[in-house]
What we know:
- The chain has one domain: 3-Layer(aba) Sandwich (Aminopeptidase).
- Strands 1-2-3-4-5 form a five-stranded antiparallel beta sheet. It has a three-stranded antiparallel beta sheet with strand order 6-8-7.
- Strand 1 (3-4) and strand 2 form a beta hairpin.
- The radius of gyration is 15 Å and the shape is globular.
- Helix 1 (18-25) packs across helix 2 (42-59) and helix 3 crosses helix 4 (137-145).
- Helices cover 33% and strands 33% of the residues.
- The two termini are 28 Å apart.
- By secondary structure, it is α+β, with helices and mostly antiparallel strands.
Amino acid sequence: MQITSSRLHLRPVITSDADDLFRIYGDPATNTFNPSGPYPDIHHARNVLARWISHWETHLFGSWAISLKDTPERIIGFGGLSIISYADISINNLGYRFSTESWGKGLATEFAKYAVNYGFGEIKLPEISAVVRANHLASQKVLTSAGLRYLRDVHDVQNAPASMLFTLTQDEWEQKSE
């Protein structure tokens, strides 16, 4: 299943994406706001990828490899919708991370809007949420542009300050879409 937005090409992750996953998630710059830090090695990236592939197999949705439509072979990011648990809650999480050369072009906003529409319109999720660090203003702007709103703080990383939980319900999305 390959899909496109106006500028992006998305496809479910596959095992051979490990090197690109490590290139992006192992980059300290892309982890500026991640208290867990960059992926330590390719082995870690392969383990994460295996979990993402398993999520697709179990739930029929998950993380996509993201590229530009005109260069679909060059992965510039990863993102998608996944079921995750933080402390006391389980959420349909909207997550994404783009390579540094993709920053500042509105690609994360385009992706987030597409993922929200896909989550509500195609797979009929009741709610979509995202967790972002309080000092990550660019990502907060992306989430707000995609229709999510700040709900409350959550303690998602041990021994780190709380993150901000943003959310949007199916009903709220339908009202905004009218």
